[in-house]
Amino acid sequence: MPSLDQILTSLVSEALSFNGPIVGVALAYAAVRTLQTFSSYSSALRKIRNTPSVKVSDLRSILAFDQVDQSDAKLVFVRGTVEAKSGVLPPQGTKAVLVQRSQLCVFREWMALFGWRSHDRRKKRFGLPRSDIGAYWKALWRALSQPGSRSLQKFPFILVDGGGGSQKSSSDFVSVNVDGSRHPLPLTTVYRHFHPVDAPLFSSAKKLFGHEYPASVLEQVKILPLGKEISAVGLCSFKNGVLEVKSCKDFPYFLSEMSKDQMVVDLTAHTQVLLFTGIVLGSVSIGVLGYFVARNWNRWKKWKQQRQLLQAIRASESNVETQVQEADAEDEVPRHQLCVVCHTSRRQYAFIPCGHLLCCQSCSALVKSHVSSKCPLCQVEILVSVRIYQS
């Protein structure tokens, strides 16, 4: 009786033989994409290491004053304090230059998973059935996949050295342009509130889907407050005589709370993980594709050998048949060995089940092809004819 390991090995082998190319190509694609990301992160790491870290007041000294377009921009790393741009102030009571508002439907299972409901915390304390945990993860996935709504309100802002204050000249600040940037922003959550959903609106959903229905709406507000110290790594250039820094698409960062050394450490860790992941995925894909190629190569070799053997057997039978026919043509066939149908060739085929040796090859085929194929001597129905070789 085969062991469990043998059964599992057989199942894996059959699965790889059936879906081997698909799995191998998918893993190879994932490995290539991972290595491409690794290359991008490695390039960004080298650039950040070589990027000068300067103060806001020193930016003008490292840039040529005649740089007026993006093509002449210089990559810089600058750290400063967030201040509103002079002449464009946020509305009264808004002490932030970036305000992000989002709304997301929250399911009861998602709330319970993070301990946002007291009775669910008691259930977790005494243990949850496996089915409930599966339902929680299912609802969490559905909740996270909800598009929701998100809006970002932006006000022009600048970075200044130290504690900020009024700008005396254009060399004391650098304007930050976040337009077109898809990089994560260093926002701070200042408001989070759950708005309960009115139960009667979802009474039909309760009947259809049980307890898996939206329980509330999560509303969040995140801001980039005034006076917060952040770092900006991007392309710096002059725009209308004013220093401006924009995001660089080759970098995974633009605005961040991290310092330059922290960015280097973070990027180094990411590149190491990406390199290891790419090597593992590439090795597994090579193994899967290699196994598939080797298995099919062995099958093709076996099929080729069987075909050659079959061709050799057929050639041997053909040679024997030719030799017998030539011998029959050269020798005079006795009268009692002549075919009972044509009376010209030697009897070579016997009919089964009666066993009578009566016909030559062509006449045997002719008798068998008849609608009522019966032995010419005993009239017994013929099942098959057999070639008889006489020594």
UniProtKB/TrEMBL annotation:
The chain crosses the membrane at residues 273-294. GO terms for molecular function: ligase activity; ubiquitin protein ligase activity; zinc ion binding. GO terms for biological process: protein ubiquitination. PROSITE patterns: ZF_RING_2. Its EC number is 2.3.2.27. Keywords: Ligase, Membrane, Metal-binding, Transferase, Transmembrane, Transmembrane helix, Ubl conjugation pathway, Zinc, Zinc-finger. CDD domains: RING-HC_SPL2-like. One of its GO terms (cellular component) is membrane. It holds the Pfam family zf-C3HC4_3. This is RING-type E3 ubiquitin transferase. It comes from Pyrus ussuriensis x Pyrus communis.
